[in-house]
Each structure stands twice: as structure tokens, then as C-alpha cells.
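Sequence dictates fold. Next comes a concrete instance:
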Amino acid sequence: MVMTDPIADLLTRIRNAYRADHQRVAIGYSKFKESIVKLLVDEGYLDGYKVERDEGHPRLIVDIKYGERGEPAIRGLERVSKPGLRIYVRRDTIPYVKNGLGVAVISTSHGVLPDYAARSKGVGGEYICRVW
């Protein structure tokens, strides 16, 4: 079976892991996936990650973050730009997620950035997903 949207697979695996109260989840590796996971760790939505080589194939091992009462740090995770319909935003039209309480993930010429960093650098790009 050919995977047509590996980013949607990444987001779905993370979403399923925190809904099932798992502590970590294994995901197939790519540099782009790693940059998205690193951004989510930096923004405080995930606990951490590491790259593990298993039988020659690297994998991302992502640690899911929970609060003191056991609630997941991620309340919502939604893919925006899809292979069949790419969504691009200009620097002056980058959306705010939940009035600034969430983060829009933008793939720019400066790398994968959160919405506020893309705004401050004055760059737009592909609107990958939103997290709150």
C-alpha cells in the first residue's frame, strides 16, 4: 500500500496516541516529519523525540505530553494543506489559531516555523497544520 500523505499519517498517529493514553509512539522518519515534531516539542505540545535506527530504517520515537491531571497537552491537531489541495498563505494573511492560543505550522523558505515566527520574519508558505 502506498502512503499518499505521510504528514497526515504523522498527525493521526500522534492524535491516536494521546487519545489512547500512550506515552510514546513510533513514526516512520523523514527530515520534514522531524522538523514538524521538533516544532511541536519546542512549542510545548510534545515531551520530546529521538531518532532510532531499527534494521536500517530510521524511526521517530515521539513522547506524548500530559498535564498533572493526565490530560493531553494537545487539545486538537488538524491537517490544513493536503496533497489534493495545497493551502498557501502570504506573510500578511497567516491565520491565528484560537486567537493566538494555538499554533499554525507553516513550511517556509526559512524552514518549518510557527505562525508568529513566520510573521516576524515576514515570510509566508504552505499552511501545514494547526495545533491547540
